[in-house]
Design goal:
Blueprint lengths: L11 H6 L6 H4 L8 H26 L3 H20 L4 H13 L3 H14 L4 H13 L3 H14 L4 H13 L1 H6 L5 H18 L4 H9 L9 H11 L6 H17 L3 H10 L6 H14 L3
Length: about 290
């Protein structure tokens, strides 16, 4: 099997931001008593996560050789594990997810396909296979994998969110292929983002994307959108985030025809990072509703 060192340095952000590979309930359901394969896999995952945590410090000191060596050692460990236990699906899953995080998407997909053949009941595998198909432009196949993930884990907000993003990104494809009608796909996009938000009501990421979806569809319910933006204010964690939400509220007011209210909100926004967006919105308002 080929070595996978070359992309690591250029994909530092992915390594730093990586989340745990697989939750315990996704990887540990195979053996109830810890077999040798499960023990080795657990050790590899711990080493991998420790290496990711050390990567940022290594970048700061320019001492990356030790991390590179450790990551290569982990790759070697995964290869030995798979050779020793070729029917052990969790090994393929963890190795496939690691390869994805370091930018080796094609071999990652191969590992996850093998994992899916051995054990087709891991939603995280279906999701990652869907991601690969979406990246390759195979949108119908991606949709099928995301739906399979939802069948396995209907209460996981990520998988609903994935479908919403896929439908929004590839909207023309699904309409041209007559998989959805224009009004139908708008409804499905909103429903998927709304489902993700409802399943994780404390998540700014999911709630924000649902609120943003009102700007993505042809016939939005602006009253409902405004209510969602107002509720999101309770989740703001700092002044910049709060003012971003206020800017979205101003945009919603503008769309509702409330240009005076929109101007009042914009007048209070002074966060420097929002200047460009704020000025563009103000130009739109002034063009449609001159003083």
């Amino acid at each position: 099997m080929k070595r996978f060192i070359s992309p690591w340095l250029v994909l530092a952000s992915a390594l730093i931001a990586v989340t745990p590979l697989i939750s315990d309930d996704e990887t540990d359901d195979a053996p109830t008593s810890e077999t040798m394969a499960a023990y080795i896999l657990k050790e590899l995952k711990e080493r991998e996560e420790a290496a990711y945590r050390r990567y940022e410090k290594a970048l700061a000191t320019e001492d990356i050789h030790s991390i590179e060596t450790e990551l290569q050692s982990i790759v070697d460990g995964y290869e030995r594990l798979i050779n020793a236990a070729p029917e052990y699906a969790p090994g393929y899953i963890s190795f496939g997810m690691m390869l994805h995080h370091i930018g080796e998407h094609t071999p990652s997909n191969a590992m996850l396909i093998k994992a899916d053949e051995l054990d087709p009941y891991h939603a995280i595998v279906k999701n990652q296979l869907g991601n690969y198909q979406a990246e390759e432009g195979n949108y119908a196949e991606a949709m099928a994998f995301y739906l399979l993930a939802i069948d396995l884990r209907p209460d996981e907000p990520l998988y609903h969110y994935q479908i919403g993003n896929l439908l929004f990104t590839a909207k023309n494809f699904f309409i041209v292929e007559k998989i959805f009608l224009p009004d139908g796909i708008d409804l499905e996009i909103q429903n998927r983002f709304r489902e993700a938000a409802m399943l994780a009501p404390a998540s700014m990421q999911y709630r924000l994307r649902y609120a943003q979806s009102f700007f993505d569809i042809t016939r939005p319910n602006w009253e409902r959108a405004l209510d969602e933006w107002q509720q999101l204010m309770d989740l703001a964690t700092d002044e910049g985030e709060r003012q971003l939400l206020e800017l979205y509220m101003a945009r919603t007011r503008y769309e509702m025809g409330h240009h005076t209210a929109a101007r009042k909100i914009i007048k209070k926004i002074d966060y420097p990072a929002l200047d460009e967006s704020k000025n563009k919105l103000l130009e739109m308002i002034n063009k449609d509703h001159p003083r």
